[in-house]
Amino acid sequence: TTTTTTTTSNDGTNNTDNNDSDNDPSAEKSELLHQLQTLRNQRRHLRTTILPTLHHRIDEWDFRLSVERRTLEQSSSTLESMRAIRIRNREEYDAGASTWHALGDVFVVWHRGPFGTVNGFRLGRSARTAAGWMRRC
What we know:
Strand content: 15-25%
Distance between the termini: 130 Å
Strand order of the largest sheet: 3-4-5
Largest sheet: 3 strands, antiparallel
Oligomer: single chain
Mean pLDDT: 82
Number of strands: 5
Number of helices: 2
Helix content: 55-70%
């Protein structure tokens, strides 16, 4: 008895398996040679069409990666220099701010005659002057 099975592989080729009860060695050999030739054709196709495209894309991605690494290094350098400048400016600002007199900036303390004033308002009274609001002149 002989049974024949036909299958279609991923590359579109038809493979036929003959199962003879006699197991003919020459048929098996020719089938194996056919499969070997199919594999060689697939390998040749990969080498000639697929691999060059993959190598080209890998080279392109390597180039992009190197460009982005350079950009990252430049950005990191710029960031570090900006941080150093901000720290130096902050230290200069803090050194100048330590000499400020906040109360003198907020409240104008002065005098008008015998009376002290804060923001133009008179403080206190004398025996000759009545208490009340004094207007600015």
